[in-house]
Amino acid sequence: MSLLAEIAVSVLIVIGASFALVGSWGLLRLPHLMARLHAPTKATTLGVGSVLLASMVYFFAIGKGVSMHELLIVLFLFLTAPISASFLARAYLRAHVAPDVLPPAGEQGWATFARRSDDAHDAPATSATRAPPQD
After folding, report:
1. SS3 state of residue 58
2. With 0-12 CB in 10 A as exposed, 13-18 as middle and 19+ as buried, what is 46?
3. pLDDT one-digit tens code per residue, 36-50
């Protein structure tokens, strides 16, 4: 393995370990769920992704080719971590925060889970809004 590949693998492992350490430390030290949610979904995800990237570089450098398993793990990790964090945050808001305490929904509607005015197409059709049958 070349010196350049060894340096790249070493740097990626150190970066990944640093992010994983910061994310794990944040998970332990932050005071409540909404604050703790950011540590594993951001820092630790980047840490694990960097370590997997180092593994991919290593196996490519020693002549084993590109590892599709690690590439798929990175892809699934970066897709599922933000989605699961979003679901956890929404569940926490629904269970622990009264709707009148939340800030106004604004255009997005995420803060209070209120139906936005442009969500009319999602509402069930009534007889007044239903199109007449076509013959």
Report:
1. helix
2. buried
3. 888 878 888 889 889
